[in-house]
Each structure stands twice: as structure tokens, then as C-alpha cells.
Amino acid sequence: MNFAREGLSFILIAALVAVGAFGVALSRRSWPLWLLAFLLTVVALWVAYFFRDPTRTGQRGDQLVISPADGKVVMVTEVDEPMYLKSRATRVSIFMNVFNVHVNRYPVSGVVRFVERKPGRFLNAARDEASLENEQASVGIETGSNEVLVRQIAGLIARRIVTDAHDGEQVRQGDRMGLIRFGSRVDVFIPVGSTLRIKPGDVVYAGTTVLAELNGR
Asked: Catalytic residue at 184?
């Protein structure tokens, strides 16, 4: 299994702590210490599981918008998007819990035209206002005659957003875009009039699930 590079230090530290706990338990022959060592091993395995980075394949195409995140679609709504699209847009909000893969991927191929990182609050990421008020990183991509915005949003537990995108960079649909540590949300803003393939409540997978088809090409 592949692991996200941002998680390697966390995986190593958790593993060393678990091994150290077993060493102490063995030297002192204490059942409470054995139990603690076992629990720390479970935590170490969960940390490795959290930072997994599986290879993803699926449908690809210039008119398709692929999910940038694993998780559950919690909202699909039409909103004003003043930062990059500067127009009405359909926002698809995907909530990631601590058991989802947290590597994010580009939903479309194109050129990065907008990158903005914004400090903010750490509200529950499932709340509607989290899209504007929480700490976040936004990436705008020009894809043919359309523009798509992806927003990584921190949540109650998530405190670190990693974004690999750079302004002017050519990116490819399904490639790695970044990561959010320990549960959060990703919003995708697509042009109004696009044909949606998902609905609230659907479970989606980064780099695999098709969210929508773009129109106007």
C-alpha cells in the first residue's frame, strides 16, 4: 500500500511509540502496560491507515468533473462564487470523516489560474458557513471554455491543509492535488447548467466518481 508523504513522519512516530511501549511492558511484565502497548499499536495502525494513498483509476474526459475527495456528498446547492468564477455556480460539498482517504485529486485537467490560502475558524465542516469561515485553500482551474474551483476546508479536527497547486501549472484530472489531515470537507464549484451525476447522500471516491458533466464546450 502507498502512503502519503505528509504522513510518513506521523506513521514513524506512532510506530516507535508502540514498539517502545511493548519494550517497557516486556521489561516490567505488567499487564496494564501490555494493554497500553496494544492500544498504542491500534493507534499506530490507524495512523498508517489514515495516510494511505491508493492508486485511483476511472472515467476521464474533458467534459467530466471527477470527485476530488473521498467521502459523502452533504450538499448540492447553487451559490454565488465571488473569488474565482465570479458568477453563480453549483457547489458540491463532500464531507470526509477520519476513516476516508484524505488525499485530494484534481477534478479536471487544465491550467491553474487561482490559488489562495485563507486562515479562518474551525467550525464543523458539515455546516454550510464552513465554506466561507473556516481555514481553507482554494484552487481555480481553467479547463477548456469552463472554469472549476476546488476548495479544501479545515474542520473541527483538521488543522493542516496541504495544497500542491501553483499558479500557471498544467494539471491533469485525477492527479494528486494535496491532503487535509484528520477529517474535513472539500467543495467543488462548477458552472451552472452542468449535468450532475450525484445527489446528497451519495458516497464518492477521489479520482474515480464522476460528479458532473460540463456543458458549453
From this structure: yes
